[in-house]
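debug: dumping io for the single-chain case to check the tokenizer round-trip. Nothing else runs in this session.
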Amino acid sequence: MKRILSILSVLAAALAVSTPASAAPTPTRTAPVTGEYVALGDSYASGVGAGPYDPASGDCKQSPDSYPRTWARNHPGVAFKDMTCSGAKIDDVRARQLGALSTRTTLVTITVGGNDDGFTSTVENCLTGSDALCKYSTDLGSWYARNTLVDRLAALYSEVRALAPNARVFVMSYPRVIDEGTGSCGAITPNAFKRTQMNNNADHMAEGIRSATERAGVKFVEMRLPFLGHQACSAEPWINGVDATRISEIFHPNRYGYAVVYTFMLQMETDVH
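debug: decoded output
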């Protein structure tokens, strides 16, 4: 906890100049870095929410301002492979992304598990359904995170370590997506009960991911605290609210959330390790 608070104090200082998301600066590093970086994961790794997207990535929706691409752009000496894909589940990462790993790989990041936990259906049910339906969805997600997700992620992380034995592996987790205040979320604004339920599910997800990283011996990177006070529906959000014309981006970080906050946390970890 002390380390997280220390990181946050640096982050607060770095963001003290209120830079709008459209002109977000990117963290930089002056020391030369070499090696091979492979980015794995789902929409939170590909940068959904920070469009426009690389046309070559198709339905995977890889944004130039995703945290993997931003970090790689700041470290041009590192060979980079972006395997991330919107909608990816654990089995998709295993089947379609792990093939990029090798003994040459020196850095791996991964964000996955949210789709396995039912992120899309939970968001839909909590935005358009009753309190009872929202509670059912979030309780089911929380149960899955505690009882199934840990084992599945630990197995995946162990495979990553076996395929890339020379790599540092950082698991970039998920933030709480919604502010528990009363601010508008856009087209639809969930009530206080639904917001609490969604954040409880996010907490169970984060703790499930943390447990899996501890079991597999990889590094968990906490993302709930860095976004605290800047979730969707807050006064200064780093996560997108509800825009009916951009459904796939709902409750995903915006450009600032990825290119600054996520990238900053990854940079802090790679500087230390």
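debug: round-trip ok. Residues 32-272 form a domain with the Rossmann fold fold (CATH 3.40.50.1110).
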